[in-house]
Amino acid sequence: MIGNPKIIAKMLVYAYRAEFDEAEVIFRLLPEIPSGEDWEILITMFKDNLIHMDMLEKVLNGMGYEVPEISPRNFPQVSDRNQALELIAKFEKAAYNYYYYLLKNTDFSMIDNGGNIQNTLKNLVEWERRHIEMIKKTLDNFKVRYKIL
């Protein structure tokens, strides 16, 4: 069980970073998406990543921590749209698993504002579950078969 507030805070900073990284990948992919429906799905996921970052920042601030300044990573340029969609699917599945792990393996009673952290993680698990469904639809639309979803 995670009961050390410093450890949970550091883990939430990594989640913040991952939300930023996925938003970067989605934003770079948007010009390659011609379909209105698929573009809407991806822009919604992009917006949701920004909301998730805000949620995590509020939780961290409530714990007395600041979110460090981050800058875009130098991800390899993915020239193939289907590979980029698969990368987004991997981000979504990893985010779901990560938030679910934190939710199930954190002793919230040991952390100030633990109830708020727990509720935020519950919300994030649900959002990521919906994102998995959304990216599945886009993968299906582009006839990409991604095995872990």
Quick rundown:
This protein is mainly α and 149 residues long. It is 70% helix and 0% strand. Helix 1 runs antiparallel to helix 2 (36-62), helix 1 runs antiparallel to helix 3 and helix 3 (81-105) runs antiparallel to helix 4 (114-141).
User: What would you call the quaternary organization?
Assistant: single chain
Q: What is the share of helical residues?
A: over 70%
Number of strands: 0
Strand content: under 5%
Number of helices: 4
Low-pLDDT residue spans: none
Q: Please provide the ordered H/E string of secondary-structure elements.
A: HHHH
Global shape: elongated
Task: Give your account of this protein's structure.
With 149 residues, the chain is mainly alpha-helical. The protein has helices at residues 5-29, 36-62, 81-105, 114-141. Helix 2 runs antiparallel to helix 4 (114-141) and helix 3 (81-105) packs antiparallel against helix 4. The radius of gyration is 16 Å and the shape is elongated. The two termini are 27 Å apart. The model has no long low-confidence stretch (mean pLDDT 90).
